[in-house]
Design goal:
The chain is an alpha/beta fold and 294 residues long. The chain contains eight helices and 14 strands. It has a domain of 203 residues: Metallo-beta-lactamase, Chain A (4-Layer Sandwich), CATH 3.60.15.10. Strands 1-2-3-4-5-6-7 form a seven-stranded mixed beta sheet. A seven-stranded mixed beta sheet has the order 8-9-10-11-12-13-14. The chain binds zinc ion.
């Protein structure tokens, strides 16, 4: 598959969505909507997206990473999954089409330490993919993964839990000396604010970027599927703390809708960009470009 890129502007900031590739998640109803109140309500909601629950045996997800040029600084937000799946790890070829080499990346912002978001930090030899990059992460996220993380109450298979922990620990160790840990919401760069959205993981962050009157939000894994924007209380098995995840999801969607931000959702069909419309008291996702979803 050719590298997919979607260059766009956030005010005067040059931005580009880079697709790290497509990944197939099995049992998406449990993974992403395991805490929906009933099968019937989930079925009705999914129907509106053209999905029949009884046939929904997998979800194809893009991995929508974001590249930003802010002044002289070249920033990546979530550096992709690396070779997690047969079709992932395409971030570097996507960057190359923008004239950017791995050594050009100055800063990598990690929204959270799940393998689909950090796997690209190390290459297949276990070396740092971006040799000159510094990393930024929320301190509670770092602390959780580096201090005997307990995923035992999360209803996902034990081998998946073990893989998540070992990937996070290996990668955190590799970037230990290059990582700045942040512990409060503040303006990280002129026009770029960190927002704490715990729940999916203990220290997940979103980013709000504003420039020349335009508002943009990188939502990370606050939402996985457009139906979750319509039903922000419905967390999934992938959310470590389903209640907190729902509270954070409600909060960030309200903020995105009220500020009329453009948003980027990592797992939505590429390029994952759209707006959160509030019609009749319910939120809806309006994609900037037609996406596809199997
Ligand atoms: Zn993810």
């Amino acid at each position: 598959m050719a590298a997919q890129t979607f260059p766009f502007q956030i005010g005067s900031i040059d931005a580009c969505v880079l697709n790290d590739g497509e990944f197939q998640y099995d049992q998406p109803a449990d993974l992403f909507f395991g805490h929906a109140p009933s099968k019937q309500s989930l079925s009705m909601a999914l129907n509106q997206q053209g999905i029949k629950l009884s046939d929904w045996d997998h979800m194809d997800s893009s991995f929508c990473c974001l590249y930003l040029k802010m002044g002289r600084e070249r920033i990546l937000i979530d550096p992709g999954a690396g070779k997690m799946g047969a079709n992932t790890g395409q971030l570097l070829s996507a960057l190359e089409t923008q004239g950017v080499k791995p050594e050009d990346i100055d800063t990598i912002i990690i929204t959270h330490c799940h393998p689909d978001h950090i796997g690209g930090i190390l290459n297949e030899k276990g070396e740092l993919t971006f040799p000159n990059a510094k990393y930024i992460m929320w301190k509670a996220e770092w602390d959780f993964w580096t201090h005997e993380p307990d995923l035992s109450h999360q209803p996902i298979p034990a081998d998946m839990q073990a893989a998540m922990i070992s990937s996070a620990q290996q990668i955190c160790e590799a970037i230990r000396e290059k990582t700045e840990l942040i512990r409060r919401e503040f303006e990280l760069r002129p026009g770029m604010r960190v927002i704490s959205i715990p729940g999916h993981t203990p220290g997940m962050i979103a980013l709000n970027i504003s420039s020349d009157g335009q508002q943009f939000m990188y939502l990370a894994d606050a939402v996985f599927h457009p139906t979750q924007i319509e039903h922000p209380d419905w967390s999934g098995q992938v959310d470590l703390d389903p209640k907190k995840a729902a509270a954070s999801r409600n909060q960030i969607l309200k903020r995105a809708s009220n500020s009329r931000s453009q948003v980027l959702c990592y797992h939505f069909p590429f390029p994952g960009l759209g707006t959160i419309e509030n019609t009749g008291g319910a939120y809806h996702f309006k994609a900037v470009a037609a996406g596809r979803r199997a």
